[in-house]
Amino acid sequence: MAETTPARVAPENRETWTGNTGFILAAIGSAVGLGNIWRFPGVAYESGGGAFLIPYLVALLTAGIPILFLDYAIGHRYRGAAPLAYRRMKKKAEALGWFQIMLSFIISVYYAAVIAWALSYFVFAFDLRWGEDTAGFFVGEYLQVSDPGVSTTIVSSVAIPLAVVWIAVLVVLALGVAKGVEKVNVIGIPLLGIAFAGLVIRALTLPGAMDGLNAFFTPDWGALLDLDVWIAAYSQIFFSLSIAFGIMVTYASYQRRKANMTSSGLVVAFANSSFELLAGIGVFATLGFLAFRQSVQIDELEGLTGPILSFVTFPAVISEMPGGNIFGAVFFASLVIAGFTSLISILLGVAATVQEKFGLSWRVSAISVSAVCALISFSLFSTTSGLLALDTVDQFANNVGIVLSAIVMSVLVVWVFRRGQLLRSHLNAVSTFHLGNWWLALVGIVAPVFLVIMLVQKLITLVSEGYEGLPGWYVGIFGWGTLAFALVMSAILTALPWKDRDDSAFRPWPELEEENR
Ligand code: PFF
Predict the structure, then answer these.
(1) pTM
(2) Which residue's alpha carbon is nearest to atom 13 within ligand 1?
(3) What is the pLDDT of residues 393-409, one digit of tens each?
(4) Which ranges does the record mark as transmembrane (predicted)?
(5) Which domains does the chain have, with CATH numbers?
(6) Can you tell me the distance from the alpha carbon of 2 to that of 357, in angstroms, rounded to the nearest whole number?
(7) Cβ atoms < 10 Å from Cβ of 432
(8) Sign of the CA dihedral 495, 498, 502, 504?
(9) How many helices (H) and strands (E) does the chain have?
(10) pLDDT digits (tens, 9 = 90+) for 451-510
């Protein structure tokens, strides 16, 4: 009950968003990203088309929104980036915060590479530089992909836009939460909405569009019996809502003390899913046009997922379309904006963590974190072995790492540290949309049970079948190695001392029946 909360707000000098709108736009900016545009349409199509909407909605309601609220509650009550917020909740939980931040750090490094490709393709759209053979152009001429292995040959066509992306990240982060990150979102998100609405309207007026939509929405009910389809739905929701990465914890920690958290969360979650659906409609209307031009059925088209959809199939459609240059430029600009607003959210989380743990100034932390990530991003993804490394890291970080993080988070918070009721009271004290015990049941029972089943199934497949026929040593380094790296680093970073931090004065607000520290 917002009216009955104590009026006094503890003084603190933490920067905040300028208000609820700024926070909501920034959180939508984090959620709406490459995952909505290139991940969702393909995943949905492969996983039962229209029928996929059922596991998708179930995942959103049983795990997505409840865990988003959990992230918000922890960040808003304990006012820190993930490691500090978890530590303030319970000292031993710091390592979980680091694990989440390590996963974010890993994702930022390849996420930036995809934005760099989109930036190049934005320029290529003006003269349709990809030519007739778009697959050959992307893999050969542009990325210069080599065999599985680690190559040190830098591809300048990728390195230059990658440098632009990282310089932009550095500048925005250095400007801070309100003047940098929030401002970019306040401008970028409405712009993205307009651009994307334009694209979808244009796509729907193309010949063949309706066949595309039919292919997208025609349900394959049998898919609902396939566990992999449910796994795909849960992974999509986690990645898309940016939850269990420690990033929404950090975002909520910059929200003012008196802030309507749950209602904002609902706005963010539904805006994200609406955007995702819109992207599905736009992409499939466009593919309907491609099938129409080639006189084939949609299911005979290839390359409907991931990077190939955006960087091979879409350029092919754009070349065939009247006014394709403009459509192409707007499409790739949308990818850049959507991706960039998500990338800065990830880096904000990492920079805030480094700032708090090592007692640095905001600027020094923002600049050093961007510089280190940029360097790693360059060495891994501007070389000729980038594409494959990216795909493998993505698979392990998202389908294993983040699911593990969500399970550990909900089990620790609800069952081990018994903070569920306290966090529920916190959210209810500051918000207008009140959570009942159903929230605890979802976060503490339903979500972890589903997630454990998914994780076990995924691990069995990865151990018994490997990944995409890649050599064992390669999956060992880029796949399992990614997870091992995140785990080991989180143990090391947790063990390091906090610099210049005396937390004894910290009091969670509002004062609720207090936790036994
Ligand atoms: N939600 C983003 C997307 O859908 O592309 C990706 C993302 C952003 C994942 C921030 C994780 C994160 F912390």
Answers:
(1) 0.95
(2) 242
(3) 988 998 899 999 999 99
(4) 21-40, 52-74, 95-124, 154-177, 189-209, 229-254, 266-292, 326-354, 366-390, 396-417, 438-460, 472-498
(5) 20-496 (1.20.1740.10)
(6) 33
(7) 11
(8) negative
(9) 25, 0
(10) 999 999 999 999 999 998 999 999 999 999 999 999 999 999 999 999 988 888 898 989
